[in-house]
């Protein structure tokens, strides 16, 4: 089976700082790939490049047969028009650390917005789809609520519903539980776990190692802008081969026993 997402020799720098140094990674349809590593290892930058929120300087990112963010013209890599990039992003749902909900809109309106303005669905159809996803993330009683009336975990579940309602080919999750109180983390991870069980392709940055161990098909350990190790979670998390990964995992010993 051909990969749905293909990252090839990706390089990205901020001035003299090289953040991604030749990342190559394939994600197959229905696969959950978890990116782990210390802060500053390049995980979030990689996700932002995949979603065309960051330019990169070398390499390519393809969703199916289409290159994301760029096209080749006369041997040069040229940025696509923003209107076309926006259409590509609709196939790459992204959920951030911060919830990024519109504070003046209800839960229903937040989830329906992209369906109306990006996918050009009628208001009635958009609300029907939005309601079904709001129910699936366990917030049916909150459809008329505003973000300030919700807990952090509830807001993050709305953000997930908003992204998956667009039926993206790949979901990108960037440390979506990092801003949550400990007692709220489980409700968000449960939603993600249900998505994975339903066959949603996912590229996930997370430090929730029990979740990674239980849900991911493949774990990718990044350090210093490169992939150091990757493989099934029972190998990467339980029997790490490199000293760099062994050192990283020492902080999770109690969780991964």
How does this model look, in words?
By secondary structure, this protein is of the alpha/beta class. The chain has a single domain (5-250), classed as P-loop containing nucleotide triphosphate hydrolases (Rossmann fold). The chain is 36% helix and 26% strand. It has helices at 43-50, 82-89, 107-117, 123-136, 152-164, 182-197, 209-215, 233-236, 243-249, 253-256, and strands at residues 5-14, 17-27, 32-36, 58-63, 66-67, 70-73, 76-79, 92-95, 170-174, 202-205, 218-223, 226-231. The chain has a six-stranded mixed β-sheet, with helices on both faces. A four-stranded antiparallel β-sheet has the order 2-1-4-5, with helices on one face. α3 (107-117) crosses α4 (123-136), α3 (107-117) packs parallel to α5 (152-164) and α4 (123-136) packs across α5 (152-164). The protein is globular and about 50 Å long. The two termini are 34 Å apart. The relative contact order is 0.16.
List keywords for this structure.
257 residues, alpha/beta, four-stranded antiparallel sheet, 10 helices, 36% helix
The largest β sheet comes out as: 6 strands, mixed
Uncertain regions spanning at least 5 consecutive residues: none
Give the overall silhouette: globular
Helicity level:
25-40%
Query: How many individual β-strands?
Result: 12
Strand content: 25-35%
Number of domains: 1
Query: In the CATH hierarchy, what is the class?
Result: Alpha Beta
The CATH topology annotation reads as Rossmann fold
Secondary-structure-based class equals alpha/beta
Mean pLDDT: 94
Which architecture name does CATH use?
3-Layer(aba) Sandwich
Report the span from N to C terminus.
34 Å
* CATH-defined superfamily: P-loop containing nucleotide triphosphate hydrolases
Strand order of the largest sheet: 8-9-10-3-11-12
